Amino acid sequence: MQIAIASGKGGTGKTTVSVNLYYFLSVKYNNKVQLIDCDVEEPNDMLFFPQAKKKSETEVYTIVPEIDKAKCTFCKKCAVWCEFNAISIVKNLKFAEVNYDLCHSCGACFEACTFDALKQIENPLGRISEYQTTFGAGIMEGRLEIGSAMQTALIKKVKKQASTGQTITLLDAPPGTSCPVVETVANADYVILVTEPTPFGLHDLKIAVEVLKELKKPFGVIVNKAGLGNNDVYQFLKENNITLVGNIPFSKNYAANYSRGDLFENIPAELEKSYHTIVDQLQLIIS
Amino acid sequence: MKEITVLSGKGGAGKTSITAALASLAQNAVFCDNDVDASDLHLILKPEIKETHQFDSGSLAFINQETCTKCRTCQDVCRFEAIFTNNDGSPEVNPLQCEGCRLCERLCPADAIQTHQNLNNNWYVSYTRFGAMVHAKMGVGEENSGKLVTRIREKAREIALENKADFVLNDGPPGIGCTAISSITGTNAVLLVIEPTVSGLHDAKRLVELVNSFQVPICAIINKYDINTEFTATVESYLKENKIVLVGKIPFSKMFVESILVEKSLIEFAPNHPISLNLKSIWKMIRQLLISKTCFQ
Predict the structure, then answer these.
(1) Is A178 close to B37, i.e. CB distance below 8 A?
(2) Which domain holds residue A280?
(3) N or C: which end of chain A has fewer CB atoms below 10 A?
(4) Nearest by CB to A42, which of B9, B77, B181?
(5) H or E segment at A241?
(6) Which backbone phi and psi does A33 adopt, to 5 degrees?
(7) Where are the domains of chain B?
(8) A179 contact residues in B (CB cutoff 8 A)
(9) CATH topology of domain B59-117
(10) Assigned domain for A129 exists
């Protein structure tokens, strides 16, 4: 069972919700719960587990071309086949170059070249790390190489490496609604959208709902920081028959805990109650 | 004309609220929402759209089921796992996974695949009560958001030059991926909005590393600084160590949300409130930094 946690807008509380669900679901499901941080641009989940032990770390790469100028006839076929303008060839100057920022690692150039002039080399994409925490089945995160624009490729690799066989796998998605988010939720059985009751939160929630409808994914909504804005978000959920999985009240004290990285210390009683309700709701949804 | 881009690394730090406040102070500026994925600036600036443009958001493969021989070549060569076997046993393209590389089309022995351009992204030139604005709306799950950011920034600069505007103010995206990269390249300065939390600082550090690689000067605002004054001190020493100018600290205030609820910037909502006065002096400082190059390089 895979549950993805997404939001549209950044800063609504995806990480807080993911980390807390990891805790509360681990209690309920005998620690057979794992958490995967798919926000590879800015992975934050591990910041809340300073005691966790690192089990493994793997460098990951994409396969990109390197042009062997001794074999290259400068025929340009690879450049023509490259839809991403990553290869420049100037025959007169015997110039052949690959721009790795533009390369999507699709492999078309290797198929195009009939002179065996392209070598497959590895371009650093980022790191995948696995941690053991004091509860649950562990956490895995992908960390994008700074300057790389290939988030989707890394998310794919993180998801592939994740151990299967857990009762529940939680996927903490990046903000937004474009390709990296689509990749995160692609195989999820259920998606939780975390929103905040403000015009920004609602606007971005509507876009996220559109994406999930297009993907035909079952989903529900958690309203975080409840009490901070207005009631328009509840009206929207009602009008569109969207499940309200839970409501987490805004608490300035809890925000202060979060700022220190202390999510599990002194959880206010009302917040703990919210998470118990959410876990019960999810149990109904899962079964 | 100077271009400034508001970024944070972490989402929710307050980029848009601060951009809107600065927009109402800037006078003679052009605004550009670089967060094409989850653009929110228009919710406050209420732009009136004057021009709508289409943007090519990549290509998408289509398999003609009548000519397809089900040889599976397409499925084997696709590195994005975008082609799957549907219930009829035929290969089908998942439009959200297809990157439009056309490899399947080129290698299909039956010539059964065609790639079409997607035109689901729109971008707009608009007018707001504070000046011209360029913004965009991405189609569902579309790609090429980085290129779209580059395109709208070009347009914003063009308008700024035409109007002899002093500034282009970019509201940036969260993260450090393609859209963030596209909103940093060639800008005159980055205004970093940091919240004093472990995740806020962690993400800001990754962003600073990225911005430094482009050698763009950075100044910073600590937003919601009173959530954790101890951690704010940690953020301040980080900024100092990295020679990043701290232009101001703003306390947590529900007033930001209240002003958004009535579609106003904080400056319009409460012009004489201490936070508004604070933002005014912040803008003055950013202006000075941008104009007197020496302080910033």
Answers:
(1) yes
(2) 2-49+135-286
(3) C
(4) B9
(5) none
(6) -135, 130
(7) 2-55+138-291, 59-117
(8) 96, 141-143, 145
(9) Alpha-Beta Plaits (3.30.70)
(10) no
